[in-house]
């Protein structure tokens, strides 16, 4: 049985990966940490939980030893839009937290999952069907920290033989924990506002294409790559995973199929628009499909239907 530690377990990705890991591997075998302990009390009280800063290596090492941890999901990070407000803080948390995790993994023989992002690409990257191995010169501090993180994970693998693995997540859409401070957050907010007000004011231009993924597929990717046969992995970290690519106009058109009165307007935020314009329109994910059988289940229509049905069930 695996013994898993999830750092950043109360965030958007962390909380849902934590729930699925506790369901699969048993609550006592999945230890959670986060900088806060006042959200999702079901997770906080449903198994071992520690309130700790992701850079506090001493405390995290003690937790790893006490619970015989063999796999760490390092999910604590400042997202792209928030990162631009305080770049040094974002660098310190995103890279400081990752180095701390990698060192603990090296000393204790743990495997590590680290999420990278479409943010690891920049304006000189090929924009459509962005290849797995290509130009990476991001212009946001979030992207800079993601590229550095990808390289650091590769380094710990070839230098110290740490079993590091990871994927480049698109914008993640979910209906449990809201995202915070990302450029792709609009794609989640739009569903809530559609159900509540039949109107959404979008902070990106209507024709801005970005890759997105529905949470069940994102969870599946994170767990599947950690269970993949290492002999098949030619890449280890930062696999492109693609699921769907759309712009706000298209998403609004799909929402209108289910909520006919829905309207969208635009008040463009120049900071988030500049970040979005520097990212790819769509990724090519051949390596993930061949090396560990990646295959998403949801497309824009099935995701839209599930999001709206779920939000309606909860709120109306
Ligand atoms: C963000 O918008 O910052 C994130 C991401 C794409 O990594 N959702």
Structural account:
By secondary structure, the chain is of the alpha/beta class. It has two domains: 4-170 and 213-240, Rossmann fold, CATH 3.40.50.720; 171-212 and 242-315, Rossmann fold, CATH 3.40.50. Helix content is 46%, strand content 15%. It has twelve helices and 14 strands. It has helices at 12-25, 41-45, 57-66, 80-85, 87-108, 141-160, 186-197, 215-227, 248-258, 270-278, 286-292, 300-315, and strands spanning 4-7, 30-34, 49-51, 71-74, 111-113, 116-117, 164-165, 167-169, 171-173, 199-202, 210-214, 239-240, 244-246, 263-266. The chain has a six-stranded parallel sheet, with helices on both faces. Strands 6-8-12 form a three-stranded parallel sheet. Strand 2, helix 2 (41-45) and strand 3 form a beta-alpha-beta unit. Helix 3 runs parallel beside helix 5. It is globular and about 55 Å long. Bound molecules: 2-amino-3-ketobutyric acid. 2-amino-3-ketobutyric acid binds next to loops. Residues 79-80, 117-119, 142, 169, 171, 182-184 line the site of 2-amino-3-ketobutyric acid (AKB). It comes from Sphaerochaeta pleomorpha (strain ATCC BAA-1885 / DSM 22778 / Grapes). This is Nucleoside-diphosphate-sugar epimerase. Residues 4-242 form the NAD-dependent epimerase/dehydratase domain. Belongs to the NAD(P)-dependent epimerase/dehydratase family.
Summarize this entry quickly.
46% of the residues lie in helices and 15% in strands. The protein has 316 residues and is an alpha/beta fold.
Notable features of this structure?
single chain; 316 residues; alpha/beta; Rossmann fold; 2 domains; six-stranded parallel β-sheet; three-stranded parallel β-sheet; 12 helices; 46% helix; 15% strand; globular; binds 2-amino-3-ketobutyric acid
